[in-house]
Amino acid sequence: MRSDALTKIYDGKTVVDHISFEIPKGKVVSFIGPNGAGKSTVIGMLSRLIARDGGTAEFEGKDVAKWKSGELAKRLAILTQTNNIQMKLTVWELVAFGRFPYSGSHLTERDNQAVRQAIEYMELTDLTDSFIDELSGGQRQRAYIAMVIAQDTEYVLLDEPTNNLDIYHASNMMKIIRRLCDELGKTVILVLHEINYAAFYSDVICAFVDGKIAAFGSVKEVMNPTTLSAIYGVDFEMIEVNGKPLSIYY
Amino acid sequence: MTASKAASHRQGVTAARRCGESEGASSLSGSISDSISGSISASVGRSSARKIAVMSLLALIAAAAYMLVSVNPKFAAYAFKLRAPKLITILITAFAIGGATVVFQTVINNNIVTPCLLGMNALYTMVHTMIVFFFNTGSVAFANRNVSFAVDLVVMSFASMIIYGWLFKKTKYNVLYVLLVGTVLANFFGSMQSTMVRVMDPNEYDALLVTLVASFSKVNADIITFALALMAVVIFALRKELALLNVITLGKEQAINLGVDYDATIRRLLLGVTIFITIATALVGPISFLGLIIANLSRQLFKTYRHAYLIAGSALFGMIALVAGQTVVEHVFVYSVPVSVFVTVGGGVYFLFLLMRRKAV
């Protein structure tokens, strides 16, 4: 997946400014940066949720806009934070929607198998028949991830998956994301606010400032006091835990 | 950040806050649902089918009652000839309004809206008044029922497609804006209408007023056939989009993620809703407030995202309510109170109930 001179303008204000990058396959790639830097907009444009105002976003050599939406849905999944469902829906029914790109509303035995596996993988088997709106925030987030797993895509895009989760659920979510990459071989692209999660759990970090890429590289390359200070405008100190750089800021 | 994005963000935040508070309660309900685990999803389909069967039976009983109550056996054939077109009109209207409202609510992703709140009833009243105002009651466009129906249908279809198509596009399907502008439009149409009425000849106004009250008795076989054919065409043209309704329930972003061509689908579905409401309104007059009641009753009864059940349930509720209501109107009140009065009173109370309940949740 790559983009070239990707641009988005809202009301005359350039939110994403000619961004070009290439996402390496089979890695966890974190987008970090201050509020309003354009991270979520970039992920929206990569996943065809947001129309772009310029540049290209290519997926497997073909422009995202040229892909048939249904075909792209089998290769790329996106999960955002605006999931409010009006309907009474059980965990099983939600996860089963992940099979929609393959079988529409009529699930085959193979689809049911995939749904069951996804629910087991997210350890939601006990909650299979619970209604989504009766789950806790962490459980609900896991149910949505299970849906993405059932969708069985090579690429998974997540917009602030740890948003609104407490430390326990957030770090669990990051471990799950790591497993999606390590065990299921998916490429995961996510927007994160907590830079230490990005440092600890991802392979590649892409830092945005004012709609431009401020730094792009491996965790070690990006996570140093000079780069981070330039991005966030705050003083940083670095320590090392389990061979990974972690930042301290206050 | 655009306004709509800000609004959806706010919703997300409050939803998250709410779920944070209910963490303790949800683990309890989780364990309860564990104990009945497995039984639910298997039985949902069966119990929904049973509910549909019971409702169909009730609708049949209501229809039979409507046809048979106080029929003089000697003149049975004559009575049936009078009553059958009315019954069919009621059934068509219930289906059109019930189905269109469910689809509209799903598309707008809000269960307390109805196409009526957009001012479609007021639009009908205005269009109808305009015809009398410009051509007077003796003209073919008013006096001939078939022509009058066709004129209502054509003018309203075009007007609503232009007005609402533009409105939806401009507000990016933002419910709050759409409803706000809809309310203003309803007032605007109402003012236009009352302006015309003020300068109208009183006799003309008298003839007009009769047609502005919802009634099932102004329909004939030609109109019924035409309305049915038109509805069949619309359903056929939208069969693919209708199959996507369940996925659209998940919201715009999830629907796109699952491969739905969202904007085009929504546009076509809203067009279908407009045509259906137009048909129902042109058939019987302003009655689409009924949709709010029956669509929500259906959602409450079936508690599912499956639109086959929701739409069928909504239509059946409408049929039962209207047929039973019309029977009562004809035989208990002897036409002194039109059925639309009940619809408006009942609908208003139910709408308040829905609003209050939502706030409490």
Task: Describe the 3D structure.
The complex is a heterodimer of chains A (250) and B (361). Chain A has a domain of 77 residues. Chain A is globular. In chain A, helix 3 runs parallel beside helix 6 and helix 6 runs parallel beside helix 7. Chain A has 10 helices and 12 strands. The longest helix of chain A is centred in the last third of the chain and has 16 residues. Chain A has a 6-stranded mixed β-sheet with strand order 6-7-8-3-9-10, with helices on both faces. Chain A has a 4-stranded antiparallel β-sheet with strand order 2-1-4-5, with helices on one face. Chain A is of the alpha/beta class and 250 residues long. Chain B has a single domain, classed as Orthogonal Bundle (ABC transporter involved in vitamin B12 uptake, BtuC). Chain B has 17 helices and no strands. The N terminus of chain B is likely disordered. Chain B is mainly alpha-helical and 361 residues long. Chain B is 81% helix and 0% strand. Chain B is globular and about 60 Å long. Classes of the chains: A alpha/beta (250), B mainly alpha (361). Chains A and B meet through helix 2, strand 6, helix 3 and helix 6 of A and helix 1, helix 2, helix 3 and helix 13 of B.
SS content category of chain B: mainly alpha
Q: Judging from the principal axes of the Cα atoms, what is the shape of chain B?
A: globular
> What is the makeup of the main sheet of chain B?
none
Q: Calculate Rg of chain A over CA atoms.
A: 18 Å
CATH-level-2 architecture of chain B = Orthogonal Bundle
Radius of gyration of chain B: 22 Å
**CATH superfamily name of chain B?**
ABC transporter involved in vitamin B12 uptake, BtuC
Report the largest inter-chain contact.
Answer: A-B, 49 and 45 residues
Largest sheet of chain A: 6 strands, mixed
Number of helices of chain A: 10
